[in-house]
Structure formats: structure tokens, C-alpha cells
Write a structure and sequence with these properties.
The chain is an all-alpha fold. Helix content is 88%, strand content 0%.
């Protein structure tokens, strides 16, 4: 696992938080909710890809397939 992935996830979180705060101040709560959901989906896809790589490495380590 590379440390840059953690920085990318943190950057997405910071950007989403800033955008949500700006949208909430301008009374666009519905769009702020959509932005936070999109940010969550982006982070989850990165994490799911990392978990898939982990399982692949475990399979190779134990010669399962």
C-alpha cells in the first residue's frame, strides 16, 4: 500500500467538504447532498479496488488458484 493513496482519499474528503460548505451557505442543500454522495462513491471505488488487489495478492501468496 502506498501512502499517496491515503493522501488522495484525504484530498477528496477535503474538497467535498469545502464544496458542501459553499453549497450549504448558498442554500443549495440538495446539491450538497449529491456532492457528498459522489465523494463517498469515489472513495469507495478506490477502497474496493485496493481490497480486490489485497485478495489477489493473498491468492498468489497461498497459491489458491
Amino acid at each position: 500500500m502506498d501512502i499517496s493513496i491515503l493522501f488522495k482519499i484525504a484530498a477528496v474528503g477535503i474538497i467535498v467538504t469545502i464544496i458542501c460548505q459553499i453549497l450549504k451557505k448558498s442554500d443549495r442543500d440538495d446539491i450538497a447532498t449529491v456532492v457528498s454522495l459522489v465523494g463517498l462513491i469515489i472513495v469507495l471505488t478506490v477502497v474496493i479496488a485496493m481490497i480486490g488487489d489485497l485478495f489477489t495478492q493473498i491468492k498468489q501468496l497461498f497459491d489458491i488458484f
